[in-house]
Amino acid sequence: MAKEEKEKPRVRVGFILFWTIAALLIVFYGHILFFPRSPFLPRSSSYEPFEKHYHITSKFPFITSYYLMLPRDYDPNQKYPLVMMLHGVSRHMYGGKALKHYKRRKKYRVIAYIPIAPPVFTWANISEGGFKPQALPIAMETLESLKQEYSVDKNKIYITGYSMGGIGTYAALERYKGIFAAAVPVAGAWSPERVYNFDDIPIRIFQGSSDYYTPLARALHNDLKLFKRDAEITIYPNTGHNSWEPTYDDDEFWDWLIEQKR
């Protein structure tokens, strides 16, 4: 009898642990499948003409979501530029909202791809010892599948992102060479000591003057110039971390980006 009483608490602990893990998994995968409701703010706003898709992968968490916008009157016999846009921690992508505006969608006939990082994931860690799981490899895997499924001009693929997505853009410059025609990190940061390993493509950096990442971005830009790379930096005066709005609302930015070619 005493032996049975000692075993009961163990059963209760195992029961509680099982259902705790199950609840966490339900919340985790529910977030992947159903959130964010929109990659734009406010979340209640429509994300059309973007469509939500899912990508099955062998990498944990085995399924991720992304939003895709095709050009109007998409023709599979015609090649189109593709813009990959990495969101920040809040998982909203102002660049996609700017690009889906009817005037820009008419002017810039591009495929717009917004991958969504799973909960607690980051795109990349600035330091080698970063502990957060990284979603950039899955996003790049999805990009490869999009190149096979849609009529993508492989010489005109671009990457941009802000804040956490700006960090991810720098990581892509270092880790995925020969893919992108240009890169635009916004309000991001990376280790200046590693710029020598960047892909040799045009880079445009945008920062707010009072952003805490700006001193690091300046140092990074200086090192890029030492390596004679095609790199420019724009510092918006009287602006903090939110430098994505003036960047993506500027048609001159989009004009420049779409002109780039590998």
List keywords for this structure.
262 residues; Rossmann fold; 21% strand; globular
Short description:
With 262 residues, the protein is α/β, with parallel strands linked by helices. It has eight helices and eight strands.
Write the layout of secondary structure elements.
Elements: H1 2-34, E1 51-56, E2 63-69, E3 80-86, H2 94-99, H3 102-107, E4 111-116, H4 136-149, E5 152-162, H5 164-175, E6 182-186, E7 203-208, H6 214-226, E8 231-236, H7 244-248, H8 251-259
Parallel strand pairs: 3-4, 3-5, 5-6, 6-7, 7-8
Antiparallel strand pairs: 1-2, 2-4
Low-confidence stretches: none
Global mean pLDDT = 93
Q: What gap, in angstroms, lies between the N and C termini?
A: 77 Å
Assign the CATH superfamily. Answer: Alpha/Beta hydrolase fold, catalytic domain
State Rg. Answer: 21 Å
Shape: globular
**CATH topology category name:** Rossmann fold
Largest sheet strand order:
1-2-4-3-5-6-7-8
Structural class by SSE content: alpha/beta
**CATH class descriptor name:** Alpha Beta
Largest sheet: 8 strands, mixed
Just name the CATH architecture.
3-Layer(aba) Sandwich
Helix content: 25-40%
H/E topology pattern = HEEEHHEHEHEEHEHH
Number of domains: 1
Number of helices: 8
Based on DSSP secondary structure assignment, what is the total number of beta strands? 8
What portion of the residues fall into strands of 2 or more residues? 15-25%
